[in-house]
Specification:
The complex is a heterotrimer.
Chain A: H1 2-19, H2 31-45, H3 58-61, H4 63-72, H5 79-90, E1 116-118, E2 123-125, H6 127-137, H7 149-159, H8 174-188, H9 198-202, E3 209-210, E4 213-214, E5 227-229, E6 234-236, H10 238-248, H11 259-271, E7 281-283
Helix pairs in contact in A: 5-7, 6-7, 8-11
Chain B: E1 5-12, E2 15-22, E3 44-51, E4 54-60, E5 70-76, E6 83-90, E7 95-101
Antiparallel strand pairs in B: 1-2, 2-5, 3-4, 3-6, 6-7
Chain C: H1 2-17, H2 19-29, H3 32-42, H4 47-66, H5 72-86, H6 90-117
Classes of the chains: A mainly alpha, B mainly beta, C mainly alpha.
């Protein structure tokens, strides 16, 4: 009898230590399997929503909001800022070069590959980072990463990728997998006084009401960024929204360009692989 | 500065439906900025739509109209191919105008 | 103006009334722990009491920062405690600092449990 208890205890210990190791253990990471499970969950939860329609967030799952949105899209509210973004993108730096010179294909139609993992630095690079890096190499000051010119330039670059499908790759590099796993852990971890994780709303309560709003499903969540948010009255980046989301669950937010948000963006965008790029978008 | 007006006019039978979006802060004069100072009033006072030489729509706006206002209306007496002229003037004397063909 | 005055009066009367039930509780239950705690809280209206409380609160908040899980209410409570201390209201400042410490401890507990609990939420 005693031996049985000891065996059970040992087994329990094993199970505990099995679950406990940090998610950074690269050997266990299987992004492709995660992707399939993630997308299948939403396909099953919303059988009536066509796969490509998930990029439209709350409008894909609520008729009333969709009708309003279709009216709004007669004249998209981000239209003026998008035009400004195009102008900024095409403006030359002091040294005569322009943003196009920093990117493959002159920066047109490449947004679907961001964020990507840079094997040289071992860092996840978002589109916003790449734009700032381009400015720095050309002797210009960095831009604010949450709104204003940065959001406008990113909006224009994303708009040139319309119709293309997200194609984020996670190379078989322990650092890339660690970044992906850190983003995944952040997405599923509860935080803040309200004890909410990203998943509490966008997975477990997707399509339900949060006061007057409809919660967007996590699938397609980042496909329309940068977004014009009615609450902001202008266009903003994903980093800006992350900061806001964290503050809403009463957690102290990180910097919009912090590593943890990069990892989260890496995870979320990877989960949207196969969906069409639709940014910039508009959300309530 | 024609940059601030977006307009779409579509003829359907004998009526023309006009939709427009104007970029303007429309500050009411009652809102404070992050430093706690009042943002001075800055809003559009008059918007005019003219088909050819004839004014078809005039709006007197004030501080209660939202930022980047959207406007939609229909009128009779114009046909496809006519030119629609849109102009606005605000309380600081700034103005803009643009023309668009009726489609 | 009037509203805030009424609020203040109500808060003040509440503060006066508060020790009575807690004393009663001590009497009825005879719990040394509860009485000891009430005693400590009453003695806390001093600079020294506040200093100890704020030190503990800030240490806990720093700890929460290391786990990447700080809460905004903790930050607000700490800020309010500093403001009360600056106004020489040490009783209030101590109370706020203790509140901040409790919140920070909760956030640490949350971060620690989420270290493993998040796995159960993953879609598979």
């Amino acid at each position: 009898m005693r031996r049985v208890i000891a065996a059970v205890a040992a087994l329990a210990m094993l199970a505990l230590t099995g679950a406990a190791p940090a998610p950074a253990t690269a050997g266990k990471s299987n992004p492709a399997a995660d992707l399939k499970a993630f997308q299948d969950y939403f396909k099953t939860s919303f059988p009536k929503v066509p796969f490509d329609d998930f990029v439209n967030g709350p409008y894909a799952v609520n008729k009333g909001m969709r009708a309003q949105w279709e009216q709004i899209m007669q004249f998209p509210p981000y239209d003026f800022e998008l035009a400004d973004g195009k102008k900024l993108f095409e403006t030359k730096f002091a040294n005569g070069k322009s943003y196009g010179d920093c990117f493959p294909d002159k920066g047109i139609g490449i947004a679907q590959t961001y964020p990507h993992f840079d094997a040289k630095t071992g860092q996840v690079v978002t589109l916003v980072d790449a734009i700032n890096a381009c400015r720095v190499t050309n002797g210009e000051a960095k831009l604010d990463v949450s709104k204003g010119p940065m959001a406008e330039i990113a909006a224009y670059m994303v708009s040139t990728s319309h119709g293309k499908r997200f194609d984020v790759t996670i190379p078989d590099d322990p650092r890339a997998l660690a970044a992906y796993e850190a983003g995944k852990q952040f997405f599923y971890s509860r935080r803040g006084q309200l004890n909410f994780s990203c998943a509490s709303c966008h997975v477990q309560s997707a399509g339900k009401r949060l006061r007057g709003d409809i919660i967007a499903p996590a699938l397609g969540l980042v496909a329309a960024f940068p977004i014009y948010r009615d609450a902001w009255g202008n266009i903003g980046t994903l980093g800006r929204r992350f900061v806001e989301c964290n503050a809403q669950v009463r957690a102290v937010a990180f910097k919009p360009d912090s590593t943890i948000y990069h990892d989260l963006e890496y995870f979320l965008t990877y989960m949207d692989n196969g969906l069409p790029v639709t940014g910039p978008g508009t959300r309530p | 500065m024609a940059h601030t007006i977006r307009v779409r006019a579509i003829a359907n039978g004998d009526t023309v439906q006009v939709q427009s979006l104007i970029q303007h802060p429309m500050d009411s004069g009652f809102v404070k900025d992050s430093a706690g100072k009042l943002i001075p009033p800055h809003y559009i006072e008059v918007v005019t739509f003219a088909a050819g030489n004839k004014t078809v729509f005039t709006a007197f706006w004030g501080p209660a109209v939202s930022k980047d206002p959207y406007l939609k209306f229909s009128f009779k007496g114009a046909k496809k191919g006519d030119t629609l002229t849109i102009s606005w003037v605000d309380n600081k004397g700034m103005h803009d105008s643009t023309t668009a063909p009726i489609m | 103006m009037k509203g805030s005055e009424i609020m203040r009066r109500r808060v003040a009367s509440g503060a006066v009334a508060a020790p009575l039930p807690s004393a009663l509780l001590c009497l009825v239950l005879g719990l040394g722990l509860a009485c000891g705690f009430a005693g400590a809280a009453r003695a806390a209206g001093t600079q020294a009491g506040y200093d100890a409380a704020i030190k503990a609160a800030e240490a806990a908040e720093h700890q929460a920062g290391l786990t990447h899980d700080q809460w905004t209410p903790t930050v607000e409570a700490l800020k309010a405690a500093h403001a009360a201390a600056a106004a020489k209201d040490f009783a209030k400042a101590t109370e706020l600092a203790q509140h901040a410490e409790a919140l920070a401890q909760l956030s640490i507990a949350q971060a620690q449990s989420e270290q493993t609990a998040w796995h159960s939420a993953v879609l598979r």
